[in-house]
Every structure is written in C-alpha cells, then in structure tokens.
Design brief:
Elements lengths: L2 E5 L2 E3 L5 E8 L8 E6 L6 E6 L6 E3 L7 E6 L4 E6 L8 E7 L5 E2 L3 E5 L2
C-alpha cells in the first residue's frame, strides 16, 4: 500500500521556521520524483517545491524562492521541506506528493503563521 505521511506542521510566528517531513512507504521511493504542494482557504492549490529522484534538480514557486528548501533522504524514504522566514501568506495545508502513476498524496499537515 502506497502511503505518504506528513509531519512537522504547527503554529509559528512570522519570521520563524518549520521543517516538514514526509515519510513514504509502499513503493521504491528513490525511483520517484517528489513535490510539496500547499492549499490555503480561498486560494488555488500551489506547487511549492519539487525534487527529482536523483536529487540533482529542485524547483520552487517564486513565492518561496530563497526561503524554502526541499531535500530528500532516499535511505530513510523521506522528503523534507525546510521553511524559513515564514510569512502570514504561507499559512496553508501542506501536502507531499509522489510522482507515481497515478500520483499519490499525503493527508496534509497544517502550517499556520500568525503573531
């Protein structure tokens, strides 16, 4: 059974940091590209960051460039999203996605940036 489980969300003040983790199981993690998406109320779902299976390519939404960093540990079947200098507008549910066929989504983790 293919499964993705996110963790690490929470409440943080503007300017703070959080590290999201996504533990994968049920497929050969190292063979698949991974992404982080987010969905805020009243907004469209947004691709936040992408990393390829070889860890040689990463891409970011313009809104998070220079603040967020995606990485993966293929030995631990885990993908991470380091989020620094968080802003109010980063508040959303964050999902990790495996680029399997069909794609698999985690259940999401809430990130709330508030003073």
């Amino acid at each position: 059974q293919v499964q993705l489980v996110e963790s690490g969300g929470g409440l943080v003040q503007p300017g703070g940091s959080l590290r999201l983790s996504c533990a994968a199981s049920g497929f050969v993690f190292r063979n698949y590209h991974m992404s982080w998406y987010r969905h805020a109320p009243g907004k469209e779902r947004e691709l936040v960051a992408y990393i390829n299976s070889a860890q040689s390519i990463t891409n970011y939404a313009d809104s998070v460039k220079g603040r967020f960093s995606i990485s993966r540990d293929n030995a631990k079947n885990t993908v991470y999203l380091q989020m620094n200098s968080l802003k109010l507008e980063d508040t959303a549910v964050y999902f990790c996605v495996a680029h399997t066929s069909p794609r698999v989504w985690g259940q999401g983790t809430q990130v709330t940036v508030s003073s």
